[in-house]
Amino acid sequence: MGATHTEGVYHVVIVGSGVAGLSAAVYAARADLEPLVLEGPEPGGQLTLTTEVENYLGFPDGVGGMELVQRGKEQAERFGATFRHGVVERASLEESPFALELSSGDVLETRALVVASGASARWVGATNEDEMMGYGLSTCATCDGAFHRGDDVLVIGGGDSAMEEALFLAKFADSVTVVHRRDELRASDIMARRARENESIEFRWNAELSEIHGSQETGVTGGTLVTHPAGHPRARLEDGKSVETERVDVGGIFYGVGHVPNTEFLAETSVERDETGYLRTEPGMATETAVPGVFGAGDVMDPDYRQAITAAGTGSMAALDAESWLEERALEEESTPAAALEASQ
Ligand code: NAP
């Protein structure tokens, strides 16, 4: 790493400032580890894109996503955590202290590392999506839905995120069409029922978006849908099978097709990741990764539950595990022959 080492060695650096990172920061700060939280490209994480959180324990009337993370940050700061804007480009984890190279070029050193870098919205790969993202194409209905008052819009996906987006958009849009690549939703029964019962929401089964129409000047003006009665039409098209193609006029398109974990900065390290990039941690209730001293928390290591409350839970576990690891390491260092000699002199 050719960049400048700007500070001393931290006890623990937490990468990510969503619920998992904040919870880890509260625990690490209360243990007097003076953690540094690197806020990442989306400070506050995915909750900042949510309006109301109804299922976080302790808030019977719900709580705003932004408010929840803001309160978490204040709580961590109260115990001595510090926050810094910064995105980790590369990590060097051969031995502790570990080195983290930030996009600014600065390098930070830390004895223990908590990776709580979360997951980002997945894109579907439709033609023109790079150009149109932010111009009528969005991955966040709660952020951009209000721009589509009176529009017809598409929501892509069949999981809880897509249902949530569709239900939110139904408050503003004239019509919402959920486009799903199979004929069966992945969403939970309660979310699926709410969407099906909403009169503004329609479903297009066995369909996928292949192209987005419009320009940055006009915004989204439509999309091309491909359909095959057996589902997964784009894969069939790639296999040379014939699919039905239809152009639809819409003023907005929302992706709700899941997330990808933000672990690219660990690509050159020995931290193990699964085939989709999720951190592999030790089996059972553990946050340890394949590299001693590196711990995972939140959505970056959890492809299954992905809830704010579980992220907070694993965040606290990662901080407790980091604290134990640092203590064990300090004891080991004290009992080395060199340390014993020093103590006896
Ligand atoms: P998900 O459950 O993984 O669903 C993703 C959906 O997108 C699936 O229907 C999938 O189709 C489809 N999809 C994926 N890639 C696609 C592509 N390239 N083109 C077209 N369609 C594609 O993700 P999620 O909905 O974000 O939910 C993630 C987790 O968060 C779940 O555990 C969920 O319960 C939870 N969650 C809960 C709530 C809530 O309760 N309020 C809200 C949001 C999320 P297939 O079904 O064919 O795979």
Task: Report what the structure shows.
This is Thioredoxin reductase (NADPH). By secondary structure, the protein is α/β, with parallel strands linked by helices. It has 2 domains: 4-120 and 259-340, FAD/NAD(P)-binding domain (3-Layer(bba) Sandwich); 123-255, FAD/NAD(P)-binding domain (3-Layer(bba) Sandwich). It has 9 helices and 19 strands. It has helices spanning 19-30, 65-78, 129-132, 141-144, 160-169, 189-197, 233-238, 308-334, 337-344, and strands at 5-15, 36-38, 52-53, 63-64, 82-84, 88-92, 98-102, 107-115, 119-121, 137-138, 152-156, 175-179, 201-204, 207-215, 219-227, 244-249, 252-255, 259-261, 294-296. Strands 1, 2, 5, 6, 7, 8 and 19 form a 7-stranded mixed sheet that branches. Strand 11 (152-156), helix 5 and strand 12 form a beta-alpha-beta unit. Helix 1 (19-30) runs parallel beside helix 2, helix 1 (19-30) packs parallel to helix 8 and helix 5 (160-169) runs parallel beside helix 6. The structure holds NADP nicotinamide-adenine-dinucleotide phosphate. The site of NADP nicotinamide-adenine-dinucleotide phosphate has 20 residues, from helix 5.
